[in-house]
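Lab manual, section 2.4: Encoding a predicted structure.

Procedure: take the sequence of the chain (155 residues), apply the prediction step described in section 2.3, and record the output as structure tokens. A sample record is shown.
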Amino acid sequence: MTAEDLYGLLVPLLDERLLVPRACVAEVTGMQALQEMPGAPSWYLGIAPWNGRSIPVVSFEGTCGQRIPATGGRTRIVVFSCLGQKLPAGHFGLVTQGFPQLVRVSSSVISADNSRVFPDRAPVLCQVRMVNELPLVPDLERLEEMIADETTVTA
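Recorded output:
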């Protein structure tokens, strides 16, 4: 490993994967029953207990205006550490369709891919080409803002 290498996680969604920095992920847990958040948009799936806190749990597909996948036996919650101070619990959960895969990322295996355009308000920074995959790089700060705008629960 060189100084330019970073560790990331490929997080499986329904039809694609997210590439996120490993350092942003606090834990991957099993799916559990969520406390409903009345009046929240459909992508805001609810509140889950985690490490003595109540954290919001969302569907990334839903935040992008896509169909929200059904939960199944492989469904997991990836718990992210917040980058900002907008969420009282300091963490939020993202529902995935399986376990994230640890990958080592360097300039030799990743490049920009501008083949798709995303809506201005979508929580997507860009799409990248990584060997034979085209993962999305989420805008975690934007995602936190979207969740904070809908969250009425305090930690």
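Check your result against the sample. The chain has a mean pLDDT of 91.
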